[in-house]
Amino acid sequence: MIVMGGIVGSGIFRNPSVVAHHVHTPFLILGVWVAGGALAMSGAFIWAELATRLPGAGGQYVYLREAYHPVVAFVYGWVLLLVTQTGGMAAVAITFAGYFREISGVSWNDSSIAAIVLLALTAINCMGARAGSNVQSALMLMKTGAIAAMVVLGLALGGGTIHPLPLLDRPVSLGLIGAIGAAMIPVGFAYGGWQTSTFVAAEMRDPRRDLSRGLVLGVIGVVLLYLAVNVVCLKVLGPEGLDHTATPASDVMRRAMGDRGALWIAVGIAISTLGFLSQGMLTAPRVYNAMACDGLFFRSVGWLSPRTGAPVVAILLQGVAATAIACSGKYEQILNYEVSVDFIAFALAASSLFLFRRKDRGAAAGGIFRSPGHPYTTALFVLACVGIVVSTVVTFPANSAIAFLIMLAGVPVYLYWS
Fold first, then answer.
1. Distance CA 132, CA 134 (A)
2. What are the Cα distances from residue 261, in Å, to 64, 147, 251, 254?
3. pLDDT per residue over 285-330, tens digit each?
4. Alpha carbon of 150 to those of 72, 121, 193, 254: distances in Å?
5. Is 310 left (phi over 0), alpha (psi -120 to 50) or beta?
6. Chain segment 34-78, per-residue pLDDT in tens
């Protein structure tokens, strides 16, 4: 549930329409989501092996530190705190607030609701991974049910049909390749998150067994859910209708069950955003804790609760940072450029598997999960990540430049702390 909860957020309810802005046939739209699912599956295999080779707390931070240099790992944690994790969480909290107001009719502003939700989940996760994961499991079951209901009711009552031809919306050209690359940006964002479950490896009873199994099964479940959502959106709305809406899930349910159906899916989206926030609050603070233990951050951030073993100060730090961003409202730009930074880290972490395989790191402990198809599948994953970064830079050059500046600013900060 932690794996699926880290991936399935509010994006799947919005990003099908974003993809349809760039490619306009069922073949291309579903093809992009299949390609994204294959990329996520490949990443799950790679991270499953990395997690069994280095099952300590911190996940991707640990892989980058051990494979390259502490500065690489520190910059990853720096960006996680300032851009990718807290900024994404703040934006999702604001998304939840909008749907919550629509459902409940309360007149509070979005920032106040977002702050309450972020601080409440922070308090829950300070109780430890077990308490946080129980909430996560419950939320994951509820939002999976909401997605399943949307798919079943949309297929049964929404009407429409999928027209498979034409396959392409334009001749094979650089323009088509560019459109597919642009469509992969929201797909990559929607599938991202499988790696966050590795942050809590040290708090699992048997991470070598449970984490590798959870990664693979969790990503398979998400791919099936995402493809089902896109199939029903294409059947009910068609590529053109999908292109012209910003709320495809609500439109599908409105056609299937009227305004009552649209209200129900709004509740589902609100639950989905809560699940994503719970996942972020549960996992990412372990990176900040690992940084503190390495002497690269405030020592107090590394303090663990003697009762639960949770990095309470690290969890509070992230919660306060995400709340500050949510209250400032200056988070839209962060979402535009976080994909490029995320996929740079993915490419580096995946590349570390080549180094660990050569040194046979962690083999003495036994129970190593081996990524199938390595080194070929790993190399393809790295190249795909590079392609998404390039596509993001080309599509959003200004935002990408800001993201890279924030990332590079972590280097002098590392030198100061070290």
1. 5
2. 46, 12, 9, 5
3. 767 777 777 777 777 777 777 776 677 787 888 888 888 878 876 5
4. 42, 27, 23, 10
5. beta
6. 998 888 888 888 888 888 787 765 678 888 888 898 899 889 888
Cβ atoms of residues 39 and 389 within 8 Å:
no
User: Dmax of the chain from CA atoms?
Assistant: 63
What does the alpha-carbon distance between residue 365 and residue 130 come to, in Å, rounded to a whole number? 25
Q: Is 156 exposed, middle or buried (0-12, 13-18, 19+ CB in 10 A)?
A: exposed
CB-based contacts of 318, cutoff 8 Å, min separation 6: 81, 85, 86, 89, 122, 280, 281, 284, 285, 288
Task: For residue range 221-252, list pLDDT tens digits in order.
Answer: 888 888 888 999 888 888 888 888 777 887 88
Task: Kindly state the tokens that stand for 91.
Answer: 């934006």
pLDDT at position 189? 78
Residue 363 CA, distance from chain mean position: 29
Please state, in angstroms and rounded to a whole number, the distance separating the CA atoms of residues 63 and 282: 19
**Cis ω before 55 (30° cut-off from 0):** no
pTM value is 0.76
What pLDDT, in 10s, does the model give residues 348-390?
999 999 988 888 776 655 667 788 888 999 999 999 999 888 8
Query: Distance between CA atoms of 2 and 5, rounded to whole angstroms?
Result: 5
- From residue 275, give the alpha-carbon distance in Å to each of 4, 137, 170, 202: 10, 8, 39, 22
Question: What is the per-residue DSSP string for 294-317?
Answer: TTSS-GGGG---TTT---HHHHHH
Whose structure tokens read 């429409």?
Answer: 160
Q: Residues with Cβ < 8 Å from 14, sequence gap 6 or more?
A: 246, 247, 248, 249
